[in-house]
Amino acid sequence: MKPARRLRATRLSSREVLRLGGHGLRARPLRALLSALGIAIGIAAMTAVVGISTSSRARLDRQLDALGTNLLTAGPGSTLFGAPAKLPADAVGMVGRIDGVESVSAIGSVRGAKVYRTDLIPRAESGGIGTYAALTNLPVTAGATVAAGTWLNDATARYPVVVLGVRAADRLGIGEPGPDQQIWLGGRWFTVIGILDPVPLAPELDLGALIGWSAASSYLNFDGLPTTIYTRTDPNRVAAVRDLLARTANPAQPNEVEVSRPSDALTARAAVNVAFTGLLLGVGGVALLVGGIGIANTMVISVLERRGEIGLRRALGATRGQIRIQFLAESLLMSGLGGGAGVLLGSAVTAAYASLQGWPTVVPAWFVGGAAAAALLIGALAGLYPALRAARLPPTEALATT
Amino acid sequence: MRPAAEPIVTLRGVGREYPGGVIALRDVDLDIGHGELVAIVGPSGSGKSTLLHIIGTLARPSAGSVTVDGFDVAELSDNGLSALRATRIGFVFQLFYLAAGVSAVENVADGLLYTGAGLRERRARAVRALERVGLGHRLTHRPHELSGGEKQRTAIARAVVGEPALLLADEPTGALDSRSAESLMRLLADLHQDGTTIVVITHDREVAAHLPRQVSMLDGRVVGDRTES
Predict the structure, then answer these.
(1) Which residues in chain B are contacts of A402 at CB distance < 8 A?
(2) ipTM of the complex
């Protein structure tokens, strides 16, 4: 009696395997849902962290695009002996002659001119507001815009009028400029004619009271020396201008000039955020790991509970490999669904947060791909041991449980 | 009539010993011919379940040889045995083992899953098998919506949907009331009439008495083999 035909076990198509895995999940939907939830929370947390930090970065890039990275500032540092240095009075003119400088402006700190809401405020409560003499082309160069009222012009620069930075106006409690809005500045009344928007590249202006250069000289004994020179340069020549700036602003003592590029400070702040993002990602990773353990736990219990089904399937002709792949598919399906839900949830959180902040919503594609891969990897790892156990179970033993 | 010209199952000197020295079967010789309806009867612990597992190739004997439908079990790999079960042997168990939350048709169609048939063909044949066992009106019902007798009929439909040469039933009436049990045995008799070889394991002598051939087991040995004339 020789076998006439060869026996060969058939292979299950991947669609059949997926269908089998789906049946397993549908038989206990609540348990599958809760197990997938662990993965979903981990992936959602990571997606939100990456999405929010990427969105904030996109906002910064957009802002830098708008503000420009070609603003350089020069100010007096300190002398070799540590005393405060000064810039020469003609520094602004000299800087303006550097090749590649498109515009130049300056402010000069008016020492001793304190700002008060009225003349009745005690002397000590100056609010930390600085008084600066400003050249009339300051807004163009520093990237400042007027929120309300007007900026100084050649005419008003000679009169006791003042434009307030946004925080200075806030501290003084002035919401609207106008002829009747007067503040007590350096021992006399100045009329508030304008309030600036926040100036991201020159935050010192936000807490400043800006008056005309000649008004400062005539009313407040201003020495006429600039304390910050703002220059806009040809975007391709920023480095070259930067090298020349100190020597040009103060040829006698170039070492006493402090040159900086304010957009660098914004970029540096973003870099600090990246470190923080790494920490939060780690927390998300732990959540993901816990989710994976949840799935492994569910699968181990599932294999114990479904010995009868395993025995039946072996009796119906399933090979060990087909049992193995069925349980693995179930685990992968659970983690895959959890991962997908997590990405959606995390993206929704990102979108909500970004729109609240007025940022563009960005969830990077590389991250979505990585998250899906991570979820599936965790599902595979979590399902591997239970699947091997299910496959190794002898059919008679699986059927013996009653 | 016994043994038929060409046996579908041949056991020679089959023994089965479990780790720890428990001997479940000793030196069993048995032939089951094509088209027979056989009861294997004996008290619990007599080795009849082990015998069914060995006939069904779910377990290998520790001694002796087993041939099923012309295939020597010892020569087949584990995957080969799986293929043998998928194409030639149908099983019915006392506890039905129906998948919860899945319709009767899907449950029965699963009986063909490992034969390589496509989903559409599996469903079409499952509908026919359910009609054959008298459940044509219960196609989309789920297991918890079926009575005990209907569940076992569904399980039988799953076992015969692939038209196996051999149907093995392990205490098929064990979980049923007497009326359901009676009608189930009539169904098995009908299937037998249509040409299926059927082996029924039972501890119930009354159930066995209705079948044309009774093999009695005690303490792992065949102690009687009676054919109604």
Answers:
(1) 95
(2) 0.94
